[in-house]
Specification:
single chain; 330 residues
Length: 330
């Protein structure tokens, strides 16, 4: 989800922000609302958006590598994974510790039971939860799944030639999404499979982008088509009923097409203050993603009997406020 300051694409960054906000709205279900008919009931699909981006940027990195031996490739894959993992920890560790404390305040247990619960903490602290499907900070499963599959994915991206990798990436995605219907199944090992097959499509994004650039596809149509596809995903996930909505597989395809077209358009020129604001909001959205469960728990502690409307407003406000504070401190 995070990206370095160099070689940024502000169009993509803006959609990172939108995706994070919609996932935050999807997780209003943490608030024990009196109704399940809240908006963006299908917004969990935006995790696919992040997986596609992560897979694409990983492929760009490994495609440039000049490792000759399998051992060198493995070393590069491990180094890349460890670098990403270690960059997340300063944000993840405080959120995990806070969540365990907040849950003890919300639903106190005996000291012996709490010490037993703490035995689960390393799994969350070190982003291993996707292997078991269990976590007290639910949204972290995305980061965990990405990190756990990255070493193998990095090896595949380096060892297998580009077009063979393209063929090998499309079929597993078709089978997986054909079987699950992009329903967001979370029982193990679905988190890891979902991360793997979706991130492997990064090579498809890379190849499509190469082809559009070769054809000198015009930037203005790319901008309008790309934005149109991603706006379609917002409309499709707006539903307030989990049993209705558009075809979820179509939303995943719209993510893929939208990313390719916006990357084809390239970066946009904005004054330095505006670029800085978008960059800050994009980085802040990453912190919001990590802290949304903690914010919901705080709301459940403060106003357990509050109205749904009040809970959602305070939840959003606390998520933003805590994220600003943690970004400043970290």
């Amino acid at each position: 989800m995070k990206k370095t300051a160099s070689n940024r694409n502000l169009l993509i960054d803006i959609w990172r922000i939108i995706a994070a906000l919609l996932i935050v709205m999807y997780h209003t279900r943490y608030l024990n609302l009196t109704t399940e008919n809240y908006h963006f009931h299908q917004a969990y699909l935006y995790v696919e958006f992040y997986f596609l981006l992560s897979g694409y940027f990983a492929y760009v990195h490994f495609h440039k590598c000049s490792c000759k031996s399998v051992n060198e490739m493995a070393g590069e894959s491990i180094r890349y994974t460890v670098k990403k993992w270690s960059s997340y920890l300063p944000y993840v560790i405080p959120a995990v510790i806070a969540q365990y404390i907040l849950e003890q305040i919300l639903s106190p247990v005996s000291r012996a039971d709490f010490l037993h619960i703490l035995e689960e903490m390393p799994r969350d602290l070190f982003l291993l939860s996707a292997a078991s499907g269990k976590s007290r900070v639910g949204p972290l499963w995305y980061l965990s799944a990405m990190i756990l599959v990255m070493p193998l994915l990095g090896m595949l991206f380096q060892y297998i030639p580009k077009y063979l990798m393209l063929i090998l990436s499309i079929l597993p995605a078709m089978i997986y999404y054909g079987l699950t219907g992009a329903s967001g199944v979370r029982t193990p090992p679905h988190d890891l499979i979902r991360a793997m097959v979706c991130m492997m499509l990064g090579v498809l994004i890379f190849c499509l982008l190469e082809e559009l650039n070769r054809l000198k596809f015009r930037k203005l149509p790319a901008l309008f088509l790309g934005e149109g596809l991603l706006i379609y995903t917002v409309i499709s996930t707006w539903s307030t009923d989990s049993s209705t909505g558009y075809g979820k597989e179509t939303v995943v395809l719209a993510f893929l097409g939208g990313i390719v077209l916006l990357l084809c358009h390239g970066d946009i020129r904005l004054p330095a203050p505006a670029r800085g604001l978008i960059k800050y909001a994009c980085d802040l959205s990453f912190v919001m993603y990590i802290w949304q469960k903690g914010a919901a728990t705080i709301v459940d502690i403060l106003i357990p009997e509050g109205s749904d409307h009040k809970k959602v407003i305070i939840y959003c406000a606390i998520t933003v406020a805590v994220s600003v504070i943690m970004k400043f401190l970290t």
